[in-house]
Amino acid sequence: MRKKKYDLVTLTDVFGVSYNKEVLQLIKQGCKEVLNISEADFERKFYKEAPPKKVKSNAHIGGNYRSSGGDGKSGRSYQTPTADALVDEWYRTRDPNWLYSHPEYFWEGLACSFETSAPFVAVNLVKEFKYPRYDRHDAIDPLSLNWNIFDWGAGVGLTTLILAKSFSQSTVYYNELNVEQVTLFKWLLQKSGLTNVEIIYDLEQLPPLDLLVGIEIVEHFQEPMTFLRPLLDKVKTGGLFAHSSYWESETKMPTLGHFRTYNFDGDIRHVDKNRDIYTGFRKAMDREKWEFLNWQPFQKKPRFYRKGEKNV
Fold it and tell me: Which of 11, 46, 129, 208 has its Cβ near the most Cβ atoms within 10 Å?
């Protein structure tokens, strides 16, 4: 086995296996045992396929766009046809309650977590702690910390498990709305053997936090600060928020759960106006007295903020 360049936890480490295909086999087993999804159904609804060639399309609401996956629903390697079938209804209704309670949304969450959020953003978060890119800050050993960490809207929880394994002396709290994803996470948590994870159903029960993690979740609320602010208030002064959002996804490919415009407490921002949406979010965080840190993880995912003192 090739020696790792960096000492970082991956999904294979979480489950004590050698290859990602073994992790996927575990997920498939869990789906069968706790969600009653047959192997045939799993392979029909979640399978690997090279994305189609990039093309221009005018099928998307808002006019022409270049899809990162051509006429597919995503540029990811794993295809989710039954989740993709929800896109048109999502564009028609923009109803989050309908979308996140829909059983087929499970596959969208699984694809995002398995291919992007866990192996890339969560690992990047830990890597920036241990091996600061461009030496923008002192290295921080996650094993030396006894923190309360909340992984907000964590889907099937693969990010949660990587964080829990990496910050093994800390407590990591998990939360998700989609019932099917929560059910699978409970099974995966048991298989991992990790004991420093707690599932939270009522966010009011969260303890004071040292680190709030929001990986591909903030952009799922059209008025983000309304939902984010109560969680920011849970973070201790001096605590951190690790944030990653693909705000402009809907301008590049059909996307579930995202919006074209966002309302930051009356400051309306548009995803198709260059960096307008990023500026809007950063200004909203500044109004909340959160300092944007110039840490530079690979591809700037996640970005980090530190909580300052609020004016009384």
Answer: 11
